[in-house]
């Protein structure tokens, strides 16, 4: 069982992680917006057809930023879920078995919802 001090330390760590995830989310959102407006402006300026490679590069960059945006969004959701578990008093316990999650695991992954063994079982499905 985690002490109040440990729970507070994990909460502070999670709040820092939340700020980072929010910054990443904003960065990738801005990047996607910049690419869309740049693409629209570029198309309006010139009547000369673009090289197909240019379109491929633009699509790749948009897809890459969209992927990073989704990863940051999912990470933020995991962090918010962990903070909610702290508020509810269930942080540090497996959502599957109710068993304590080892402190070492929480130090590596503060958003952990299961023990290592349970995570392997779930991923193995």
Automatic annotation (TrEMBL):
Transmembrane segments: none annotated. A zinc finger (dksA C4-type) spans 94-118. Residues 1-65 are annotated as: Disordered. Residues 1-29, 39-65 have a biased composition (Basic and acidic residues). It comes from the Bacteria. This is RNA polymerase-binding transcription factor DksA.
């Amino acid at each position: 069982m985690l002490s109040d001090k440990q729970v507070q330390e994990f909460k502070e760590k999670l709040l820092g992680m939340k700020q980072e995830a929010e910054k990443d989310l904003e960065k990738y959102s801005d990047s996607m917006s910049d690419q869309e407006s740049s693409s629209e402006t570029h198309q309006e300026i010139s009547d000369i057809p673009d090289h197909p490679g240019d379109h491929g590069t633009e699509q790749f960059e948009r897809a890459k930023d969209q992927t990073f945006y989704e990863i940051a969004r999912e990470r933020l959701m995991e962090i918010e879920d962990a903070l909610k578990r702290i508020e509810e008093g269930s942080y540090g316990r497996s959502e599957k078995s109710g068993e304590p999650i080892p402190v070492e695991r929480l130090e590596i992954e503060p958003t952990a919802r299961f023990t290592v063994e349970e995570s392997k079982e779930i991923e193995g499905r």
